[in-house]
Amino acid sequence: MTTLEDSTTPLAEIGSLIRGARQNKGLTQAQLAERLSTSQSAIARIEQGSQNLSVDMLARISAALDAGLLPIANTPQRPTHLRVHGGRTLSGTITVNSSKNAAVALLCASLLNRGRTVLRGVANIVEVDRIVAVLQSIGVEVEWVEGSRDLEIRRPAELDLSGIDDDAARRTRSIIMFFGPLLGQQPTFELPYAGGCDLGTRTVEPHMIALRPFGLDVTASAGEYRAVVAPDDGEPVRVVLTERGDTVTENAIMAAAGRDGVTVIRNASPNYMVQDLCFYLELLGVEIEGIGSTTLTVRGRSHIDADVEYHVSEDPVEAMSLLTAGIVTDSEITVARVPIEFMEIELAVLSEMGLRYSLSPEYMALNGRTRLVDITVHPSELKAPIDKIHPMPFPGLNIDNLPFFALIAACADGHTTIHDWVYDNRAIHLTDLTRLGANVRLLDPHRLDVDGPTHWSGAEISCPPALRPAVVILLAMLAAKGTSVLRGVDIIRRGYEQLADRLIELGAQIDTFQD
């Protein structure tokens, strides 16, 4: 029987469309279940994207809702849009999902292991799907464990890099992190150019600087990276990173983990995804000293064959996104399972701006290493900070969290300068907030002036081609009175699992539709 799991249309997108069509009809899940002679729990699973759908069932749902859903099984996927009825107060508790960036690094690192890796609690997002597709295309067995959010990974004795899925690889920058684990396994190999968000020029040269001490030489030709790796002489390797980047550090760590001998990495990022990677590698028998610091000493292994399970830790950037939803709607919500070590600077800045919040006692994540808290934000009178808001390498304010401060600053009384010194073009995407009533001025490619408070009003906006600014615009629409439309929101699925549905659970009114 043909199911929509076999089609190219993601089940989560279909589920969102079915939910939107049901709500437009004014039906409850139970009422739709009655029309289809099925259970309310089955409808809930379908709308969550966790239930495979036969073409017959989709046709029945389409008829029950008079929604014309069936063609999506056989036609190219159309852009998905969100209609947001803003100005509503949110309430309740929402739980942070596992980290996108950690999951991607761990999937790449699984190439080091000839045994069985099970990653537990992986977010079902597009970025993960793309890396999974690339792994499968080179011969790695990757399967979702039925009825769970767990991925089981088994790599073959020899990888088939000639069969790599170019399309999936070119649509993600994460492919650049294949260099590190492949260094000790292939004397020569080719990888497609890295893609990802439209954030301006982001050179791969820091990665090359980090990996040259391991014998890597890369040339670019005809849309590909051609890599040649010199034999490893077993001598200690010393790496000094010229840029304390997260993925650069991860690449160096994976290169070090796959070789016999000692590697010292200086100016390393100690950020959350780097720590997750280190915790996983320790389970594989790799010794790492200095986790959480800027100097790492790695004693690797050229042959790793271990059966391991690892729980991916929670995502501090999603935590910031969810906290922002409560802040800008002047609501009291609780965000559960926040990795507090990676949110302390953000909370300190928010406290300076007048945010009232409370923290639960700390408890451990399922990986046994990451400290978590529940954070409750309360309605607050916000004021602009005295100094500019800018990111720094961890333990500074996270670069991925900076866009949310542009939105929060637009809700605060006074003048705020946002300095995004890392990316060339990301700041310009945040000027779309002016369409919703904000006073945001672009000073140059890296700086914004924001004056608040904003009297938000609804508007129709095309989704920015960058993940975090796209979510910022969606969250601003929650605050805007009236109806807003955010067009072409598929990029949000790159890093967030069913974000609109989860905001609805807090009381947001959001409809999913296609033209």
UniProtKB/TrEMBL annotation:
Gene Ontology CC terms, in alphabetical order: cytoplasm
Catalytic activity annotation: phosphoenolpyruvate + UDP-N-acetyl-alpha-D-glucosamine = UDP-N-acetyl-3-O-(1-carboxyvinyl)-alpha-D-glucosamine + phosphate
Gene3D superfamilies xref list: Enolpyruvate transferase domain, lambda repressor-like DNA-binding domains
Species per Swiss-Prot/TrEMBL record: Salana multivorans
SMART domains named among the record's database cross-references: HTH_XRE (SM00530)
Example GO molecular function: UDP-N-acetylglucosamine 1-carboxyvinyltransferase activity
Signal peptide interval: none
Gene Ontology biological process terms, A to Z: cell division; cell wall organization; peptidoglycan biosynthetic process; regulation of cell shape
SUPFAM superfamilies reported in the protein's UniProt record: EPT/RTPC-like (SSF55205), lambda repressor-like DNA-binding domains (SSF47413)
Main location (coarse class): cytoplasm
Annotated function: Cell wall formation. Adds enolpyruvyl to UDP-N-acetylglucosamine.
Subcellular location(s) per record: Cytoplasm
This protein's name: UDP-N-acetylglucosamine 1-carboxyvinyltransferase
PROSITE patterns: HTH_CROC1
UniProt keyword annotations, A-Z: Cell cycle, Cell division, Cell shape, Cell wall biogenesis/degradation, Cytoplasm, Peptidoglycan synthesis, Transferase
Family membership noted in the UniProt record: Belongs to the EPSP synthase family. MurA subfamily.
Root EC class: transferase
E.C. no: 2.5.1.7
Pathway the protein contributes to: Cell wall biogenesis; peptidoglycan biosynthesis
Annotated HTH cro/C1-type domain residues: 18-70
